[in-house]
Write a structure and sequence with these properties.
Layout (H helix, E strand, L loop, with lengths): L1 E8 L5 H10 L2 E7 L24 H12 L4 E5 L8 H5 L4 E4 L4 H14 L2 E8 L2 E7 L7 H5 L5 H10 L3 H20 L8 E6 L5 E6 L24
Helix pairs in contact: 1-2, 1-7
Bound molecules: zinc ion (ZN).
Length: 235
């Protein structure tokens, strides 16, 4: 059993492979927050769920499966959407957070809540044949707003939804996120703190890690006790 508490925000394309991986490695506590029930259209990609789970909240169905795989562990399902009112309090209960949402606005909400609460997290994003992941250690490495400044416009978000998500790409990013959680709770060095990984499976797959530095004046500074500009630049 690995001692540690990891929260997965979103029990879908990224969150399911991350949850399975954490359960199989024997992580002590996995929290899962997701407001939605399992639907038929989820089953091909979100392999933790079966036909009998349709209509059950994803967080609860996934939590049951996690306990089946890791009977000595604890799963904490939270059937709710993460929002301004609950984000900081929820992330503060965990050692490490996995952003497995498909909503750009939620990603910035998680970023700000984790920076404020001083909790490390790994961002993940997938779109079509591409994926991204980056670990943020508040006060040490660049946050999401250092890199992207803010969520895209609503029109852009809509066109992203149309581009869809490819299951194997999401699975790869979700597994990388679980590995970042594993490294963090074991006290090992992160592979993706201070670097954003991009995976492009159009044609021959390519993986690249681009170093990113904390940016003074990053918008999280107005929200956080530890601003990114205060962070010592790495490398
Ligand atoms: Zn920042």
């Amino acid at each position: 059993m690995i001692d540690g508490r990891v929260l997965i925000v979103g029990a879908g394309g990224l969150g399911v492979p991350a949850a399975l991986s954490l359960a199989r490695m024997g992580l002590g506590t996995v929290g899962l927050i997701d407001p939605d029930p399992v639907e038929l259209s989820n089953l091909h990609r979100q392999v933790i769920y079966g036909i009998s789970d349709i209509g059950t909240p994803k967080a609860e169905a996934a939590a049951r499966k996690i306990i089946e795989l890791n009977p000595g562990g604890v799963a904490e399902p939270i059937v709710a959407a993460i929002d301004e009112s609950n984000a900081r309090e929820i992330v503060a209960r965990y050692d490490f957070v996995i952003d497995a949402t498909d909503d750009p606005t939620a990603k910035f909400l998680i970023n700000d809540a984790c920076v404020r609460a001083g909790r490390a997290f790994v961002y993940g994003g997938v779109l079509g044949m591409g994926g991204q992941a980056m670990t943020v250690i508040p006060g040490r490495t660049a946050c999401l707003r250092c890199v992207f400044e803010g969520p895209p416009e609503l029109g852009e978000i809509a066109s992203c939804r149309e581009a869809g998500i490819i299951g194997p790409v999401a699975a790869l990013i979700g597994l990388l996120q679980a590995d970042e959680a594993r490294r963090f709770v074991l006290g090992l060095e992160s592979g993706l703190a201070g670097g954003i990984l991009t995976y492009d499976a159009t044609g021959a797959p390519r993986v690249r890690v681009t170093r990113v530095s904390p940016r003074r004046g990053c918008a999280c500074e107005s929200r956080a006790s530890i601003g990114c500009g205060d962070a010592p630049a790495r490398n």
